[in-house]
Specification:
The strands form four sheets. Strands 1-2-5-4-3-6 form a six-stranded antiparallel barrel. It contains eight helices and 16 strands. Helix content is 22%, strand content 32%. The protein is globular and about 55 Å long.
Length: 297
């Protein structure tokens, strides 16, 4: 007899692929950042917002690197990464036409609920890609109302642009947005301590707090937060959500070895009805309910 835990562990069977993906484009940005588009049709077809891929950066390096999926469209996936460490530096050095091995999509993604149509998307640094993927999914469903708040302490991996979409809650001086989201009709505002033009000088939770304060009780009751970024940021967002009694899902970032649940090297403590449980970020997550994560920061 297969237990519930075994069924859970088998969730990715039939939807996990290894593909030799052709590099179709690579755009480089300040701060050693790059966005790479890879031809991986099976992975793209099965990907969900919040899932990720395990990429072989170079034949000389046997260990893969986990990268969040930023977009999955027309048989292609896009990933954003910073060239930190030997592996990602080698990946950033790839050229159009090169081939990279892609394992994915991996992990449990974000869950939408009709009773929470107001979606507040909060991304920080390399936590921005899952928010873009989720925004791409939400823009095709008119029953949802997404708003995005993005933060970075290094230059954003896109050109800043003044928004034409109203966001009174952000203040008159906070006008910069992500052009892609602007084109999709999704209001977005940016935060940084680096004084980039039109951004809020502070943390993403500052603007998120302003946004939630500006909503009515009924609007807040119909709101859900989705977030990805550094652990310190995630805990701050989780605390904010708890203060407003708003549901919140977090996409955790942990070091991974196998990324398919075998090594259990990426476990985090999760509170369950039966007590504490060590769960794997790669396959039990990376998305968890923020209220059950045992934050260690």
């Amino acid at each position: 007899m297969i237990t519930a835990a075994q069924k859970h562990a088998q969730r990715n069977r039939g939807t996990l692929f290894v593909e030799s993906g052709e590099v179709l484009a690579i755009d480089r940005f300040p701060g050693e950042q790059a966005i790479m588009r890879i031809r991986a049709p099976k992975c793209a077809a099965a990907a969900e917002p919040g899932s990720f891929v395990h990429v072989c950066c170079d034949e000389a390096l046997p260990m893969r690197r986990p990268l969040s999926i930023m977009r999955a469209k027309d048989g292609n996936i896009e990933v954003l990464f910073k060239s930190l460490g030997d592996g990602l530096r080698l990946l950033a050095a790839k050229h159009i036409g090169d081939t990279v091995s892609v394992l994915g999509p991996i992990g449990k993604g974000f869950s939408l609920s009709p009773e929470h149509p107001n979606c507040l998307l909060i991304g920080g640094g390399v936590g921005i890609p899952p928010m873009v993927f989720l925004a791409d999914r939400l823009r095709h469903d008119p029953s949802y109302n997404p708003v995005a708040i993005l933060g970075s302490e290094i230059p954003f991996p896109f050109e800043l642009q003044p928004s034409q979409r109203q966001a009174d809650w952000a203040g008159d001086t906070v006008t910069s947005c992500m052009p892609l989201l602007e084109n999709w009709g999704i209001p977005s505002r940016l935060c940084s301590l680096a004084d980039y033009p039109g951004t809020h000088r502070g943390y993403v939770t500052d603007l998120a707090d302003r946004y939630l304060q500006s909503r009515s009780d009924d609007e807040r009751a119909r709101t859900k937060i989705f977030t990805c970024g550094p652990t310190v940021m995630l805990k701050a967002v989780a605390d904010l959500a708890a203060r407003y009694e708003i549901p919140c899902e977090v996409s955790l970032e942990e070091f991974m070895a196998c990324a398919v649940g075998g090594c259990a090297g990426c476990t985090v403590e999760i509170t369950t009805p039966d007590g504490p449980s060590m769960q794997r970020v790669c396959v039990d997550g990376p998305v968890f309910d923020a209220s059950v994560v045992a934050w260690q920061t």
